[in-house]
Amino acid sequence: MSLKQLQLVPVSAGGTARRRPPYFRGAKKLAILGATLSIQYTPWHDPSWILAAHPCCRPNCKREPDWYFDLHRPECFTKPKGWNPTYHDWLKRLQTPIFMQAEWPEIPMSVRYPMERIVAEFRSSATGRGYFTNHVAYMIALAMTENVDTIGLFGCQYSADTEHGVQRGSAEYWMGRFEQAGGRLVVSSPNNILSQPRGYYGYESHDDHGKLLDEYRPKLVKVYAAPEKPSAGAGCVLINPDSAVGRPPLMELPEGMKPAWERSGHQIYA
User: Fold this and answer.
1) What's the rounded Cα separation, in Å, for the pair 131 and 124?
2) Around 53, how many Cα atoms within 13 Å sit in the side-chain half-sphere?
3) Domain assignment of residue 2, yes or no
4) Distances from the Cα of 61 to the Cαs of 18, 131, 146, 187, in angstroms?
5) Is the domain of 125 the same as that of 157?
6) To bridge 219 with a disulfide, which of 66, 124, 161, 255 should be the other Cys (CB 3.0-4.6 Å)?
């Protein structure tokens, strides 16, 4: 190819070259990376794996991932993060494609996640819409549209005793769908995905006295504190389960009986 011909070849700016499927370029293995300790088991030096990471885990990566993902709205990614006070500026300078809700002009490497296609292809018959409560779910669904046959989760953990616990069900749901469709899962250890509680319910969930084991008991985390009484003009009130005012209303119990709050699921467990 001559110099003149080289000059005629269009150069894609930013993430333009990645804005149409197949996003993973026919790769068969996708590693989804999070920020917990098991990220250390990522196959960093195996070129057969495509690495897709949430930006928060970049300091722990031993090589630059092939993709990033951050599907939050601008009000979230334009704010300083505890793990990166200059996160928005970092996104602007990023040289790696990143899945986002839109192709933001100030973030040249942003690639619009194909939300409409994913929701249309994978909506639930029970709810009429897809079950997506975390980034892992979005990435697994996208990988399924591109015939990825192996997905590994490294550093991805949705502990029941953290605020991310409510997101875990969706991650496990999509892992199950992927396996049922013939895919192979690689889950690093230590991890609680598809492994907690560990015992078989009914067979191993109770002790010799018939008492439910602690592993099966709910673990609720109080993230915010709320006042006993709402302030004037407040649009919403955060529920404080430690307070009788904050507990959900119950029907009147017979003979003045008091509710058994310790068994209601509203008690805060350590």
Assistant:
1) 7
2) 23
3) no
4) 22, 29, 25, 17
5) yes
6) 161
In the block, residue with structure tokens 């990143």:
98
Domain residue limits at 268: 210-270
Q: With 90 as the cut, is the pLDDT of residue 169 above it?
A: no
In a domain, 222, yes or no: yes
Helix (H) or strand (E) holding 93: helix 87-93
Please tell me whether the peptide bond between 249 and the residue prior to it is cis, using omega within 30 degrees of 0: no
How many folded domains does the chain comprise? 2
Q: What is the pTM of this model?
A: 0.69
Name the maximum alpha-carbon separation found in the chain. 94
3-class DSSP state of 106:
coil
**More confident of the two residues 197 and 78:** 78
Q: Are residues 138 and 254 in the same domain?
A: no
Q: Could you give phi then psi for residue 231, rounded to 5 degrees?
A: -75, 160
Strand partners, 111: 99
Shared domain for 183 and 218, answered yes or no, is: no
Amino acid making up residue 252: E
Q: Is residue 261 over pLDDT 90? A: no
Residues 94 and 151 in one domain: yes
Same domain, 123 and 159: yes
Give the number of other CB atoms < 10 A from CB of residue 117.
13
Q: What span, in angstroms and rounded, lies between the C-alpha atoms of 97 and 65? A: 9
Instruction: Tell me: do 55 and 154 sit in the same domain.
Output: yes
Structure token digits, residue 71:
């599907």
